[in-house]
Write a structure and sequence with these properties.
Gyrase A, domain 2, 14 helices, Nucleotidyltransferase, domain 5
């Protein structure tokens, strides 16, 4: 309940609350998903799933994807969020250099910078960016901007909502791949020129990275099936049968000269377009840079002999995109020694935490909706907090009032008991302090009347009794009075009592002697239980 409301979900790259996210990558024939668990600084890669779309004609493409998503969901653990990547084929990319280094400043002006460059209206576009290079000395940054028509994203998201889930983040496949590449220990410090090529059945995605910075991207609407189409013509078989041959035999089958010749021709035609694109990228860079490495991933990485063929064809070192070094990062774990298939790299890249892609999200509706929900939750929580605080104050005051009332009642009873100990006759019906005081006052008045009959020139014994009462510290001495005798002839009072100890006896003697205006002499006593004669001061 308190996550992201009272306490943030995370601080930097530290997740205060555990979180499970699923990343999806969708193409024409497959839906792949990778499940990642985040807690603290730990990143645990838990599951990699690949669902092949139905090949029948009963369902539309969107319905097939929705069905595949549902099947994947049923195989997942309980998750918190869904991230998905859209194909870069539908995205407009622009590289810009801006005189700012702060993300928020760039975000505030990026739409105005990109608007004139778009082939569609800006109000129909969803735009976001990643910072590919910061130049603090010049107070500037280089950014890669991605713009896509809003309806493209909505159509993509609808396939998920039809499956019963709603993505919270939509990224671009090649930008996510670049971000993931920068997080792999084996590649993160590579400064030479590297080309990432994701070969799919229908699409081939290409990223050109120079000096650790993504500079060019390109997506081709062709892949394994386009090669299979050409191979099918040679063998007079169906395209699907030809695709199966490619996936089974790959680019190698030396013992079958016909196949070897056919696949060399088909593959050379396909990779010629890739080579031309790479050469065009190189021509746009200064100093005639050369590629140091090509990394292959996707479904094409399963083709036997692809790295050897591409390496020879492009005259460059070619390898499969490797993720094994991820575990060199102490924060990254792979559950149950899971093998990460090449076909799942994009879905893993989509969900893998990264500073580069942390704030990138083309699904602005999700951000706004989440923000609105958060505000509503915060208001509701604030309301309940106020109610709880008011209730606690009320309960606290009620308890304090109850304690105060009990204390007052206790004090009243204590005062009544003291009046009783002072030989005032307090009846059981007089159970309040006011009633007891009234009764005691009445008794005093009666005594006054009695002493009044003694004569005007006689000493006021009542005044001296009150003075004696005031002089005695009942609690300090622990005195227990058993008898009080007033001797009128010699004008004295005999106090028969018992005190706690000898210190209390000395204190009592001192306190009475201190009242010189009322008592002229106190006869010393030496026992805790005593009869003390107190001579009264003469009235002037």
């Amino acid at each position: 309940m308190i996550k992201n409301i009272l306490i943030p979900e995370r601080l930097g790259n530290y997740y205060i609350f555990q979180k499970r996210i699923v990343g999806f990558d969708i193409d024409k024939t497959h839906v792949t998903a990778t499940q990642v668990y985040l807690k603290g600084k730990a990143i645990v890669i838990e599951r990699c799933l690949d669902e092949i779309l139905d090949t029948g004609n009963e369902l539309t493409y969107e319905e097939k994807v929705t069905k595949a998503i549902k099947n994947i969901i049923n195989s997942l653990d309980k998750f918190d969020e869904v991230y998905t990547s859209i194909s870069s084929l539908n995205v407009i990319f622009k590289s810009l250099r801006l005189p700012f280094v702060k993300y928020e400043k760039i975000k505030s002006i990026i739409n105005y910078e990109v608007e004139p460059l778009l082939p569609f209206a800006a109000n129909q576009a969803l735009i976001d960016f990643i910072i590919t290079k910061e130049i603090p000395a010049e107070n500037s940054s280089e950014v890669m901007v991605a713009a896509v028509q809003e309806n493209t994203v909505q159509e993509h998201v609808k396939m998920f909502t039809d499956a019963g889930i709603s993505p919270t983040k939509v990224v671009v496949d090649l930008l996510a791949l670049y971000s993931f590449y920068k997080n792999i220990p084996e590649y993160e410090n590579t400064l030479s020129s590297v080309v990432l090529i994701d070969v799919g059945f229908n699409l081939t995605r290409l990223s050109f990275i120079n000096n650790g910075q993504i500079v060019f991207v390109r997506t081709f609407p062709k892949g394994i099936f386009s090669q299979a189409k050409d191979l099918a013509k040679i063998y007079s078989i169906t395209q699907n049968e030809a695709a199966e041959m490619i996936m089974r035999y790959g680019y190698q089958k030396e013992e079958d000269s016909k196949y070897k010749q056919a696949i060399d021709s088909v593959a050379s035609s396909f990779w010629s377009d890739i080579r031309f694109t790479i050469q065009s990228f190189i021509s746009k860079l200064p100093d005639n840079l050369e590629i140091s490495k090509v990394l292959i991933l996707g479904q094409g990485a399963k083709i036997v002999g692809i790295t050897e063929f591409v390496g020879n064809f492009l005259s460059v070192d070619c390898q499969l995109f490797r993720t094994a070094s991820l575990t060199n990062n102490p924060n990254v774990q792979i559950k149950n020694s899971l093998t990460i298939p090449s076909s799942n790299i994009i879905s893993l890249a989509t969900v893998f935490p990264s500073v580069i892609m942390d704030k990138f999200n083309l699904y602005k509706f999700s951000e706004n909706l989440e923000s609105e929900r958060l505000i509503v939750k915060q208001l509701v929580i604030a309301f309940f907090c106020i109610i709880i605080i008011i209730t606690m104050l009320f309960v606290n005051n009620y308890i304090k009032i109850g304690k105060l009332k009990a204390e007052i009642e206790s004090s009243e009873q204590e005062a009544i008991e003291k009046l009783k100990k002072a030989k005032f006759k307090i009846s059981e019906t007089e159970n309040t302090l006011d009633e007891a005081i009234t009764s005691a006052t009445t008794q005093i008045e009666e005594k006054k009347k009695y002493f009044g009959f003694i004569g005007k020139d006689r000493f006021s014994f009542l005044r001296n009794l009150l003075a004696l009462k005031d002089a005695i510290d009942i609690e300090g001495t622990g005195i227990k009075v058993s008898k009080l005798t007033i001797s009128q002839p010699d004008e004295s009072i005999v106090l028969s009592a018992e005190v706690r100890d000898f210190d209390a006896l000395n204190k009592l003697t001192r306190d009475i002697r201190a009242r010189k205006d009322s008592f002229s002499h106190v006869k010393p006593v030496s026992d805790k239980k005593f009869e003390m004669k107190i001579e009264l001061a003469k009235k002037v």
